[in-house]
Design goal:
Layout lengths: L2 H13 L1 H12 L12 E9 L3 E18 L2 E18 L2 E17 L7 E12 L14 E13 L5 E11 L10 E11 L1
Antiparallel strand pairs: 1-2, 1-8, 2-3, 3-4, 4-5, 5-6, 6-7, 7-8
Length: 193
């Protein structure tokens, strides 16, 4: 790993220290969690893409007052509201940008909701404070659509802790060219309160 990439990653984490501390304080004040998926959560998330693009995100999830059953599996939904900071190798050296997102997400939990593991997927919208531009890719818009698929596992007596592995694709869906898109692998920790 090049030293410049390591330094950028450390700077990215320092820049988000306030958000990370806020998420930890919010989670620490909550003692009695409801089962995962039925209560709000706060989360921290790391993401990795091509061209040494890293992201650090914080966010909240707000559950819908809705659930259904599909072939013996529980289906629920939630709103995902996030703020992330991207660090990447830009055209003129190191680059960074801030991205906010809003994503409605469906979650499927096997065994009528009794399983600790789950699948999820969602499609939402993001907005960046500047255009993402690397030597190999150039986004033509600051707003983009974000779609993801993930698999996760709930921990704790009331499933208040979650670990989720996600794959996310961001692009403007061909609204304006060029539209190369970017794919992230993300790891999320969430705390339900």
């Amino acid at each position: 790993m090049p030293i410049t990439h390591l330094l950028r990653s450390r700077a990215l984490l320092r820049g988000n220290a306030f958000f990370l501390a806020l998420a930890c304080v919010a989670g620490a004040g909550a003692v009695h969690a409801q089962p995962s998926g039925t209560s709000p959560s706060v989360y921290v998330q790391g993401g990795w893409a091509e061209h040494q693009t890293d992201s650090a995100a914080v966010g909240v999830t707000l559950p819908w007052n809705w659930q259904s059953e599909l072939w013996g599996n529980e289906v629920r939904g939630y709103w995902d509201i996030s703020a992330s900071r991207w660090s990447y190798n830009g055209v003129n050296g190191s680059g960074d940008l801030t991205v906010v997102g809003f994503t409605p997400t469906f979650r499927l939990r096997p065994d009528n909701g009794r399983a600790n593991w789950f699948w999820e997927g969602g499609v939402g919208i993001t907005y960046a404070d500047r255009k993402y531009h690397t030597p190999d890719k150039e986004f033509s818009t600051r707003y983009n659509f974000g779609s993801h698929l993930g698999v996760g596992y709930s921990l704790g007596a009331q499933r208040q802790h979650e670990i989720v592995l996600r794959v996310q694709h961001l692009s403007n869906a061909g609204i304006k060219k060029p539209n190369p898109g970017e794919n992230f692998v993300q790891l999320r920790y969430a705390y339900h309160f």
